[in-house]
Amino acid sequence: MGRKRTIYFLIVCLIACLCFGIYANSLKNDFVNWDDPGLILKNQKIQNLSLDNIKQIFTPKKATTFQPIRVLSYAIDYHFWKLEPMGYRITNIFFYALTCIMIFLIVRRLSSDLRERAASDSHERVAIFGSLLFAVHPVHVEAVTWLAGRKEVLQGFFFFLGFYLYLRAREQAQTKRIFYFGLVLLAILLAVLSKPSAVVFPGVVIVYEIAMRKEKLLQYIKGHYLFLILSLMISAIFTSILMKVMIEAGGIKPYYGDSFLKNALVCIYAFLRSIKMIVATLNYSAAYSFAVTLPVFHIRNIIYSLLTLLLFAFSVYSLRWTRVIFFAFLFFVVTIFPYLNIIPISTLLADRYVFIASFPYVFLLGILFDRLYVFRHKRCSEGFFKLLSVSLLVFLLIAYAFMTIQQNKIWKNSFTLWADAVEKSPRSNTANSMMGIVYMELGMDHEAIKYLEKAISILPYDYQSINNLGIVYGRLDQPERALRELIAAIGIKPDDDAIKINLSLFYQGQKEYRKAEDILKYLISKNPENAILHFRLGLLYKESGQYERAVSELLKSMELSPHIMNPYEELGNIYASKIKNWEKARYYYARGIEAVPVAKSRVEDLRWMVQDLEAYR
User: What is the number of other CB atoms lying within 10 angstroms of the CB of residue 209?
Assistant: First the structure.
């Protein structure tokens, strides 16, 4: 028993080292402009770990996603790393390594449960083969390297932890079984709070029990009805929460198609493309273009529909002679189900969507490599197929690891990411809209217009690209076009406060201060605790020469967000250049230095300002 534990410990260390090894070249990557700024760089919720703030993190808010475990993990990272991206990446890789370790433990048990005739050492090999393949698979790069993708590795770890505990629970005596089932429910809850799509967990349990018991399923349900009811309750509650926040936040989009058959085809395309993404895709991308061949009864659509039906029929029929294929295929179906556009979502295809769903693939591959490992033929030496199996496995591991390392480089920064996405998927709305944002940040507005207009031509109701187009036209001193686009964006998304802020900035740029002020005051009346809104109003008053009112708003912003440097800096600027109160200017500059000591370049600027003001003493 001691030797076995030592071997398991060494395998766990190998998996962890492999995960950190192949993702080591991502540690110096920057934050990318794809939810990273909103979730980390500009997110005030992650800037302290007080009990009140944690309570706020776990309180659902209108028109926002509800993934509090992810936000809490960012807050812990911020406590140690502030805004150093390497620290956040280490956390992502850490949870990915834990997920891969859970894959090893689960595959070993599933191999034993679903392959009764296999030798005991076969289960160990399948577990090692499968977990190593999962660790290096390049389809996981988005989930691990994208910092906003933290929800995937968190959900993956808790999801597989819950399933492993469930498998352990089945072996326990009654008292211990209740304890283990309690842990399973806790793991499900943590998975759902990391990413709500984990609500499908009870479906995975049912698929497993059908594979294990077949005709005894009703007997199992009677014996475990309380656990099943509780797990289904968790899923139902969080499914309702998910639907509510998605509707409020605009996450549910119009269906791709104007008929039931077209929408059904979209589901089939997404299903088959997800399989291809795991098994055969080499050109992984942050965005994919998606188009269904029309008319509906085109030969391609007929073939795809028949192929999907054939896969379902084969997997169900396979239960007659093997449990493995049935379980693997239905596990994939259950875990990919939330992403098949049955409820229409903004992104139809994404690498991250198959993070958990890729598990059956590595499980089956592990079994295939093991079958080759033990295969014997009278014309070959005894060790020939062992060597062949290990050689092919190592070749595949190296190939996958190489693709993963190369994909990490694509995620180096926003420009490399979206330039690659546009090149691979020129008809992707997401790729074009994000490339437009990148060019906006670089100040290359004419290039930005080209990509933003293309994004809108692909998806006419893309209010974010329309909003950004309005901003660019404003910067290019084309006020009529800017106003037209901003008003159009508000017409599509009237409850989006960010667009209203941009409209306020537009009016401010046109010296129409009263209109800009009215918008900001309206937004503050809805959300009086928003420090950014008070800061914006303070800047507006400063520009319009209303310095006392500017000071009042900046002080309010400072009180609401004491760890943000900008209000201190602007207060110092007003007192130094407008009110000529050198003492207060020095005071607020010094407060800004104390508030954010890690912002080295800006702190140095403030130090020079304080030093220059010493001459006025």
Answer: 18
